[in-house]
Amino acid sequence: MDSPVVTLTRNGAIAVVTIDRPPVNALSADVRRGLLDAFDELADDPGVAGVVLACAGRTFVAGAEISEFGTPAFSEADPNDVHAAIENLNIPVVCALHGTTLGGGMELALACHYRIATPTAKLGLPEVTLGLLPGGGGTQRLPRLIGAADALEMMLSGAPMSAQTALEKDLIDVIVEGNLLEAAQRFVGELVATRAPLRLASEVDVDRASVSPTLFAETRTSLAKKARGAIAPARIVDCVVAAVTRPFAEGLKYERDLFVECMNSRQSAALRHAFFAEREAGKLPGNLAGNAKDMDLRPIRKVGIVGAGTMGGGIAMNFLNAGIPVVLLEVKQDALERGLGLIRKNYEATASKGRMTLEQVAQRMALCSGSLEYAELQDCDLVIEAVFENMDIKKAVMTRLGEVCKPGAIIATNTSTLDVDVLAAASGRAADVVGMHFFSPANVMRLLEVVRGRDTAPEVLATVMGLARTIKKVAVVSGVCFGFIGNRMLEPYLRECESLLLEGATPTQIDHAVEAFGMAMGPCRMIDMAGVDVAAKVVLERRKEGALPADPSYRTACQMLFELGRHGQKTAAGYYRYEGRTPVHDPEVDRVMEGLAAQYGIARRSDISDEEIVERCLYPLMNEGAKILEEGIAYRAGDIDIVWLNGYGFPALKGGPMHAANVIGLEQIVACLDHYADKRGNAFGYWTVAGLLGDLAAAERAFGDA
Ligand code: COA
Question: Active site residue: 65, 107, 498, 612, which one?
């Protein structure tokens, strides 16, 4: 046989089939073809008594090649033929698992007669996270091997299983320390010597004890609540029902049909888009990336954080979790102690839920020290300021950091609203300065906006992007502008939400409409949670700078609620009244909005539809995204999607605002913006179509087209 990605070697009577397709040995058409050839050859080779299937590189097959879905390559060399060729070989086939055996890799492993793994191996069927189901026999073989209930749990969560758990569930046969390939060859040798039976998952019946009478009904009920219209989870249940009730061959065919339905769905296209966009976001483009390869990234061995408030503490935990020592700086001893105490309390809460041991809490706290002296920051490789959001205060901190930080140290600001270039200038060493905009709670939220200043050195940017990976954040680079990518796009969204309130929509109606679109939380509930005071202060500050539209009614609802002391959930009143944490419609808010409408001469109406709410809140947000792209604030449309998916509860099944705009159709978005400009007037330019959006729509192209 002759395949660049699959090789067949012989060691006496034992054959070794090796897949070598970096980076993760994804099961592409060429790998499947290579495997078919190899197993065909083995079927005709009487000199071979047993086979090991293994992978070179960092992992066993980590899935089907996602980029081939929906392309002609997908239909070449059917994985079920590969599996049949393996299962039907009349000598034992053992697969040797290391790294992450996922998706199509797991299905390949299930088709082998025996499975052995390293102690650190992980096994999973994560297809559901991509809007898919295991389409290479996984839904049929897994229930036969571990029972219907466990198989459902594994496929619906998509979460990988440790080798230890897999062993306990008889999903693998043995865990081996030391050299995996040698152990696998010894193992298959023993199988041959003892004439061990060939175990074919396809020939096993699903254990009836694993199928309680209510299993499927209960699973469907819980999915209806949790999965919010997702197709793939429901189809996975259908397939497991088939595994229980139908012969293997029929189940396999049924699975394939449902897989193709999922693959061709918009949901899966959106989730696959997000998968690749997330990985792309971590890369610096063009010449920056070229330079980054050659440049010396700065090692980050110790981190300083100025400000031990909720934000500073949350940021610190990210580094402590990654084993990087942190020194927290405060101005007063009691504030410092409070900050350190808060970190400890957070860890202890995690430990009390069993997600961490007390020993781990102690290890993390041992890495964390506090100080009142700037001089203590001298040996830090990175210092992040997380002090009160005020230009004068932050500038003073940056100046001080510019003086005390060692040469080569990176100085970061966690500002969410201030001009990073002004702060960088205050440090006196702007090339070392970068923005690191964490989202609250900073130890939980995955998103990190990395703000590239005018003078930020490329290696500083590249270092911080690498560091983001170390602390398990998804990082997106933003240029300098008010609100960066996320909050800047939030502004037109909130503007329209508040206009709709004045025109007669209620907070409940707006939130329901936007949540029905898929947003995790409507805008009114969101501001109530974040704090009406916080939102109103940002508007006030921006007003002073003259950075907001001259429209006198601009975001007036939020300011009025703030003046009335309705600060949101924390005062049990904001856009809603709160009973505990439950928002309740408050007629008082209706009266406030009626008053504001009268004051600004805005006509109230009762015909505001959910469709109008969604279009008016979301299309200007997408339009703002287009401006962000054309101004070069974001490198790519996908980066914007990643910000909104990870920081603002945009529905994953819609792939982010720019992907959603593509699906709606850019022409349609433009027509809609024009329609509202016409209907509502465009004195403040709210409905002016971004140049890039107009151009793409006219050319029938989409965001993200090269
Ligand atoms: N198909 C195609 N490419 C894949 C892939 C797949 N199934 N899995 C990973 N890759 C690519 C990534 O896009 C990335 O490419 P890049 O370096 O050009 O950006 C590279 O492999 C490394 O992946 P990354 O996620 O950055 O590395 P990691 O070590 O953090 O994680 C995995 C590795 C395998 C755990 C992770 O990539 C993963 O979960 N992959 C998807 C697995 C999956 O869902 N399989 C089922 C498919 S049906």
Answer: 107
